[in-house]
From TrEMBL:
Keywords: Membrane, Transmembrane, Transmembrane helix. This is Uncharacterized protein DUF2029. The chain crosses the membrane at residues 85-109, 166-183, 189-206, 218-238, 291-309, 316-334, 354-379, 391-409. It comes from Pseudosporangium ferrugineum.
Length: 568
């Protein structure tokens, strides 16, 4: 059973396995590059003693708050030897594969131990929880969302707090699991906490006598867990929310990325029955197809609900799934790609702290996981059905699950990394404390190649800017932004790169270029080969700097050490 999960994980990622450092996930090139960088940072923490919570090697001179940027330290640090000896590309594809398979395996283990009697039922639940459309869509680069193998153990330990003698021991174990999950993905921890809160309230309503009998030790256990977690997380969370380069809020409105009602009965583009055009109209992006269960699965859920209705715990799980599903639909109902004007309850909490940091559609990952648990419970009960009804049940299960099974993720070939980077020729020109400025300047969508060079180098040199979340324009505007505050030379080069027109340069443009390069502590400016409008960009850089480029290691390079003197 465990090998089947691993095999399916390899099948989903096989196009990337064929060339881990030479290919990019086609649906999410930006986040692929970002998490390569995070894995390289984990390697530097272990092998170079870098600060795990902050890096000054990117976005020079301001740096980047790692804790405020999905640190994945619980993944990058243990996998640092893989990154160091086999390369960051191998570490990335290995973590994506093990994230899918490991999540399935963790749910299989917890289901088999605590929820169901048969291995087959546990295997079905694990299969869905690990390889549902939401998980496969996030496998397009989001190693933090596919690595959900801690979640089932958190759920298990929370439920065990009601048992006698679990207050201290269970509370400490739960607290340690919470700490671990914080360093994997805080969003998933928030979703899990909200789901368990709704579950507990619903269960108390359905079975209040039993709830009262265990409430005291359950709440004491939660208190021990909270105390344990806060004691260990106090400084990391302080760094995240108040430290250097921390921010508040997201760079988009809460209603921008929401769950479309029709997506519940549709199929994701990476499902066997998927249709890319339909999925495109009903999803926020290829990485956010968090529902897409298919109409047969909706019918199967009605069957499972009927079979499990007498169980207060199953009903409470259904309530939790419905509540989080409604939350994922955002402040206004969206149907078929259009907003209907129907206001939803999420509008009341959209601006609350922490909630305003979440991409709303991701709340739907909770009901997706709950579906897996309900399928396992129903499959476990199926053995008690009469023969004909049992056969009908398994036919319905197959019709619901098989069309949703995943296809391999699409990839594209990455631009070839030049010898200037791979053979470390840059070391002759970039002394310690100075930066390598690649053009297009590293940004989300426009500077992917420069970010990829940086990650593949192991962050061995420093760069200005990059793709991350930082305050938009501190100290006046601390709203989260995917871009560092703009500088004149960035704006100028972006315009040239987009339109291909060499501008008439002024003395002010040249002064701004030297000022920006000085701010970035630049040693060299390197033009990315084969970038769009390369000739226009090269001519513009030469005009700004007043020096010709050198041809070194497959790139055009401008040595600006004689023009830029940051110490002065």
């Amino acid at each position: 059973m465990l090998l089947s999960y691993l095999l399916l994980g390899v099948i989903v990622l096989i196009p990337l396995w064929l060339s881990p450092s030479g290919r990019v996930l086609a649906h999410n090139k930006d986040d692929h590059g970002f998490f390569l960088t995070m894995l390289a940072h984990g390697e530097r923490v272990v092998f170079h003693g870098d600060n795990p919570l902050f890096t000054d090697r990117m976005n020079v001179p301001d740096g980047m708050n790692i804790m405020a940027n999905t640190s994945v330290l619980a993944l990058s640090v243990p996998f640092a030897p893989v990154t160091h000896f086999l390369g960051v590309g191998v570490a990335m594809v290995l973590l994506l594969t093990l994230g899918l398979a490991g999540t399935a395996a963790a749910w299989w283990w917890v289901l088999a131990r605590y929820f169901v009697r048969t291995q087959r039922a546990a295997w079905i639940g694990g299969l869905w929880c690990g390889f549902a459309p939401a998980m496969v869509s996030h496998a397009n680069g989001h190693i933090n969302f596919v690595a959900q193998f801690v979640v089932p153990f958190i759920v298990w330990q929370v439920l065990r707090l009601r048992e006698p003698g679990r207050v201290l021991r269970g509370g400490v174990i739960l607290g340690l699991l919470i700490v671990l999950q914080v360093f994997v993905n805080e969003e998933v921890l928030l979703f899990t906490a909200l789901a368990l809160l709704v579950f507990a309230v619903a269960y108390a309503c359905f079975s209040w006598r039993e709830t009262l009998a265990v409430a005291r030790r359950f709440l004491l256990g939660l208190g021990v867990a909270a105390g344990t977690a806060l004691a260990l997380l106090a400084y990391p969370l302080w760094s995240q929310f108040t430290g250097a380069q921390s921010y508040t809020g997201q760079p988009f409105e809460p209603g921008l990325f929401v769950t479309d009602l029709l997506s519940l009965g549709a199929y994701a583009r990476q499902s066997l029955a998927g249709n890319s055009e339909v999925a495109r109209q009903l999803s926020a992006s290829p990485t956010e197809e968090n529902t897409f269960w298919g109409l047969p699965m909706l019918i199967m859920l009605v069957i499972a609900g009927r079979m499990l209705w007498r169980s207060a715990a199953a009903r409470a799980a259904m309530v939790s799934g419905v509540v989080l599903l409604i939350m994922s639909m955002g402040p206004q109902l969206r149907v078929g790609g259009r907003y209907t004007g129907v206001q939803l309850p999420f509008a009341l909490i959209a601006d609350l702290p922490v909630i305003n940091l979440v991409s709303v559609t991701r709340f739907a990952m909770v009901p997706t996981t709950i579906i897996g648990v309900l399928l396992a419970l129903a499959a476990d009960r199926a053995g008690l059905l009469p023969s004909r009804r049992r056969v009908a049940f398994w036919v319905a299960m197959a019709l619901a699950v098989v069309p949703v099974l995943p296809k391999p993720l699409p990839v594209i070939r990455a631009p070839q990394t030049p010898p200037f980077i791979t053979q470390r020729m840059w070391e002759q020109y970039v002394p310690a404390g100075r930066t390598l400025v690649s053009v297009p300047v590293p940004e989300v969508t426009t500077g992917r190649t420069g970010m990829r060079w940086f990650a593949l180098s192991g962050l061995d040199y420093e760069i200005p800017r990059g793709y991350f979340m930082v305050p938009a324009d501190p100290p006046e505007n601390r709203t989260g932004s995917w871009f560092a505050a703009l500088r004149p030379t960035v704006v100028l080069l972006q315009s040239v790169g987009t339109y291909g027109h060499v501008p008439v340069l002024t003395s002010a443009d040249r002064r701004d270029a030297i000022a920006d390069l000085t701010y970035w502590r630049a040693a060299v400016v390197v033009l990315v080969p084969d970038t769009p409008n390369r000739e226009a960009l090269g001519a513009t850089i030469t005009g700004l700097l007043g020096i010709p480029p050198q041809q070194v290691g497959g790139v055009q390079m401008w040595d600006v050490r004689g023009l830029v003197h940051p110490a002065g």
